[in-house]
Write a structure and sequence with these properties.
Blueprint lengths: L9 H5 L8 E2 L2 E2 L1 E2 L10 H13 L10 H20 L8 E4 L2 H16 L5 E5 L8 H10 L2 E5 L12 H4 L4 E7 L11 H10 L3 E5 L11 H4 L3 E5 L10 E5 L1 H6 L10 E5 L2 E4 L13 H17 L1 H20 L5 E4 L10 E6 L4 H10 L2 E2 L1 E3 L4 H7 L4 E5 L6 H17 L6
Parallel strand pairs: 3-15, 5-6, 5-7, 7-8, 8-9
Antiparallel strand pairs: 1-2, 4-10, 9-10, 11-12, 13-14, 14-17, 16-17
Helix pairs in contact: 2-10, 3-10, 4-5, 11-14
Length: 418
């Protein structure tokens, strides 16, 4: 494949997304909730429909044409996923239902096998609940201790605290690549090196990382890296667990049943090698095939171009929101270069849910709530925020629509803005 073009032709990209032609409350749709789930280009929608029309059959189990076609398409998507993040082998790619299941698989399979009383798991105060609760459960079972890296007032991890938090008792350091609330891009390689220096395993939640910039798991040296199809233009119901082969080989299975076994006897069973050891039952093979089409689409755009567009539009959003005055407080790093395409904010004296509903009247779709990050909300001193998140199909005009709608919301709730 030839090198991707420099820069994104965003108007051409927008034409690939049928949903963007929708009208909401008599206004053209502005979709600013891609951190929750991204929209899907026609190429992905067509790949899913075409698979069901032409090649649908269960994978790995049939010695006939349709099953062989389905198996080839499924395993080709695994190879595309491995190449997308520069894994050493497609055998290091396990398909799950979502990022949450990937993290649970690691916690239950690696965590249960390796954590004991007095051991410690280190996470951060900016984690999604999916990278907190599984560790809480396993720590409670095993008598281990969960500890948190604090967050600074500007929204960065307090890396100075890591020196005292990572000790010889630390067995796992689990942290997000990009915060789904603050947008903060964390220094993955640095944290991984500190974890490895103490003999700990490094788990990276890449749900907001992999969709928005180039990821090289070998350069990062992450032991595990997890993400989801639906946040990167692909279908729902597909998660990815990358794990180093040495770790996957030593881990026990997460679920038992069909597909993951070599032999079942009355007195026991033997399991397959990774990744199939962790893929019990019929997998979500049709959506995995369509996920492969999403990877092709992003690869054609070029992930460096995706990242540059995201920095540009996030920077523009920070500038425009600043024009609304002190009544609008933006959380997270002030520089777009330190952020993913996420901007969380609060409007003085207006609940985030009221903001979101008012913006919906203007056709602008944003998120409001605690974003599955309640410990971080407590650190910010608020129960919830409003959040706008951007992707390849968003434009500066979308940001302008957001700001204009916020002005109207301010007027509605008695806050006059210039």
């Amino acid at each position: 494949m030839s090198d991707p073009p420099k820069g994104l032709d965003v108007e051409a990209v927008r034409r690939d997304f049928p949903i963007l032609s929708r009208v909401i409350n008599d206004k053209p749709l502005v979709y600013l909730d891609s951190a929750a789930t991204s929209q899907k280009p026609s190429r992905v929608i067509d790949a899913l429909a075409d698979f069901y029309r032409t090649s649908n059959a269960n994978v790995h189990r049939g010695i006939y044409t349709l099953s062989e076609e389905s198996t080839l398409a499924y395993e080709t998507a695994r190879e595309k996923t491995a190449a997308f993040i520069n894994a050493a082998s497609s055998a290091e790619i396990v398909f799950t239902r979502n990022t949450t299941e990937s993290l649970n698989l690691i916690a239950y399979s690696w965590g249960r096998a390796n954590l004991g009383a007095g051991d410690e798991v280190l996470v951060t105060a900016m984690e999604h609940h999916s990278n907190i609760v599984p560790w809480q459960i396993v720590c409670q079972e095993r008598g281990a201790v969960l500890r948190f890296i604090p967050v600074t007032d500007e929204g960065f991890l307090d890396l100075s605290a890591i020196e005292s938090l990572i000790t010889e008792r630390t067995k796992i350091v689990a942290f997000t690549h990009v915060s789904n609330v603050l947008g903060t891009i964390n220094p993955v390689r640095e944290i991984v090196e500190r974890a490895h220096g103490a003999g700990a395993v490094a788990v990276v939640d890449g749900a907001q990382g992999a969709p928005h910039g180039a990821v090289d798991v070998r350069a990062l040296d992450a032991d595990f890296y997890v993400f989801s199809s639906h946040k990167m233009l692909g279908p729902t119901g597909v998660g990815v667990l990358y794990g180093k082969a040495s770790l996957l080989n030593e881990m026990p299975p997460f679920l038992g049943g069909g597909e993951m076994i070599m032999e079942v006897r009355e007195d026991g069973f033997t399991w397959k090698d990774p990744p199939w050891k962790f893929e019990a039952g019929t997998p979500n093979f049709a959506d995995v095939v369509a996920f492969g089409a999403a990877i092709d689409y992003l690869s054609d755009l070029g992930m460096d171009n995706v990242r540059q567009h995201e920095m540009d539009i996030t920077g523009y959003a920070l500038q425009r929101l600043a024009t609304l005055g002190d009544g609008v407080a933006v959380h997270g790093p002030p520089d777009a270069a330190d952020r993913g395409g996420v901007v969380s904010f609060a409007v003085e004296s207006v609940h985030p849910h009221d903001i979101a509903q008012t913006l919906d009247w203007e056709g602008v779709q944003i998120r409001a709530g605690h974003h599955c990050a309640q410990p971080l909300m407590r650190r910010l001193g608020t129960p919830a925020t409003a959040r706008a998140s951007f992707y390849v199909y968003n434009t500066n005009e979308d940001v302008d629509r957001l700001v204009d709608a916020l002005k109207k919301a301010g007027e509605l709730f008695g806050r006059q803005r210039s």
